[in-house]
């Protein structure tokens, strides 16, 4: 199997470019803050690396429908997982939420 040199650098550039586009566009759609979490935030980049974004926004949508808004409006150009929390859920988490813990311990605040 041939090895592709420089793939990590190319993938990082693609992810960085998409992240910047989102940071520029999402505030206009109601995002108040955003954290980069997951493998990319930890610097672990491979062929399947995607952007894992914890988004804080005021919404009445049920948890399982919140990411749909961002996917529909932004039409991601690369793999992205949106994890959306209301400001109250973010500030006052119920129980131990592994995603919020990841944001606090390893996440990078990219907006807000």
Task: Please explain how this structure is put together.
This protein has 112 residues and is α+β, with helices and mostly antiparallel strands. The protein has one domain (7-111): 2-Layer Sandwich (Beta Polymerase, domain 2), CATH 3.30.460.10. 40% of the residues lie in helices and 21% in strands. A four-stranded mixed β-sheet has the order 3-2-1-4, sandwiched between helices. The longest helix is centred in the N-terminal third of the chain and has 19 residues, at 7-25. The mean pLDDT is 91.
Summary keywords:
single chain; 112 residues; alpha+beta; 4-stranded mixed sheet; 5 helices; 4 strands; globular
Element-level helix/strand string: HEHEHEHHE
Q: What percentage of residues falls in helices of 4 or more residues?
A: 40-55%
Major beta sheet summary? 4 strands, mixed
Q: What value does the average pLDDT take?
A: 91
Structural class: alpha+beta
Helices, by number, come to: 5
Reported by name, the CATH topology is Beta Polymerase, domain 2
Tell me which CATH architecture applies here. 2-Layer Sandwich
Strand order within the widest beta sheet: 3-2-1-4
- Give the total of beta strands: 4
The CATH superfamily bears the name Beta Polymerase, domain 2
Terminal CA distance: 44 Å
Q: Report Rg.
A: 15 Å
Shape: globular
Supply the CATH class: Alpha Beta
Strand content: 15-25%
